[in-house]
């Protein structure tokens, strides 16, 4: 009977070792999957940065410098505002006089289509 219980004990120990090896293999597999995922994310980020850099280079080659265009537009806007302001100050007085004359000087007349009833 002792040999039988020793055999059972050996089987139980072998089963336990096999179970431990399986758990260890699962842990290594999980660790490797995690590592592979991190490597893939790093590779994707590197590729994305490379493509963005290429896109920016092509964009600047095609469109030119954005800062230069902004400066030109800002300068043109400032010049237009300056011209409108000077025109306003130059013509304001005469326009106010014309407007007041038109509103205040009323000459009453009979409309040509009016027929006087006899």
From TrEMBL:
<protein>
    <recommendedName>
        <fullName>V-type proton ATPase subunit G</fullName>
    </recommendedName>
</protein>
<dbReference type="InterPro" id="IPR005124">
    <property type="entry name" value="V-ATPase_G"/>
</dbReference>
<comment type="function">
    <text>Subunit of the V1 complex of vacuolar(H+)-ATPase (V-ATPase), a multisubunit enzyme composed of a peripheral complex (V1) that hydrolyzes ATP and a membrane integral complex (V0) that translocates protons. V-ATPase is responsible for acidifying and maintaining the pH of intracellular compartments and in some cell types, is targeted to the plasma membrane, where it is responsible for acidifying the extracellular environment.</text>
</comment>
<keyword id="KW-0406">Ion transport</keyword>
<dbReference type="GO" id="GO:0097401">
    <property type="term" value="P:synaptic vesicle lumen acidification"/>
</dbReference>
<feature type="compositionally biased region" description="Polar residues">
    <location>
        <begin position="1"/>
        <end position="12"/>
    </location>
</feature>
<dbReference type="GO" id="GO:0030672">
    <property type="term" value="C:synaptic vesicle membrane"/>
</dbReference>
<comment type="subunit">
    <text>V-ATPase is a heteromultimeric enzyme made up of two complexes: the ATP-hydrolytic V1 complex and the proton translocation V0 complex.</text>
</comment>
<comment type="similarity">
    <text>Belongs to the V-ATPase G subunit family.</text>
</comment>
<dbReference type="GO" id="GO:0016887">
    <property type="term" value="F:ATP hydrolysis activity"/>
</dbReference>
<keyword id="KW-0375">Hydrogen ion transport</keyword>
<feature type="region of interest" description="Disordered">
    <location>
        <begin position="1"/>
        <end position="33"/>
    </location>
</feature>
<dbReference type="Pfam" id="PF03179">
    <property type="entry name" value="V-ATPase_G"/>
</dbReference>
<dbReference type="GO" id="GO:0046961">
    <property type="term" value="F:proton-transporting ATPase activity, rotational mechanism"/>
</dbReference>
<keyword id="KW-0813">Transport</keyword>
<dbReference type="GO" id="GO:0000221">
    <property type="term" value="C:vacuolar proton-transporting V-type ATPase, V1 domain"/>
</dbReference>
<feature type="compositionally biased region" description="Basic and acidic residues">
    <location>
        <begin position="14"/>
        <end position="26"/>
    </location>
</feature>
């Amino acid at each position: 009977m002792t040999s039988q219980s020793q055999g059972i004990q050996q089987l139980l120990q072998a089963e336990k070792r096999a179970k431990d090896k399986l758990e260890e293999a699962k842990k290594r597999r999980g660790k490797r999957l995690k590592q592979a995922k991190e490597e893939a994310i790093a590779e994707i980020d590197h590729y994305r940065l490379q493509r963005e850099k290429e896109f920016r280079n092509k964009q600047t080659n095609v469109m030119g410098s954005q800062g230069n265009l902004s400066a030109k537009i800002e300068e043109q806007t400032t010049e237009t505002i300056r011209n409108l302001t000077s025109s306003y100050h130059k013509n304001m007085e005469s326009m106010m006089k014309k407007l007041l004359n038109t509103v205040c000087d009323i000459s009453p007349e009979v409309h040509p289509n009016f027929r006087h009833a006899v």
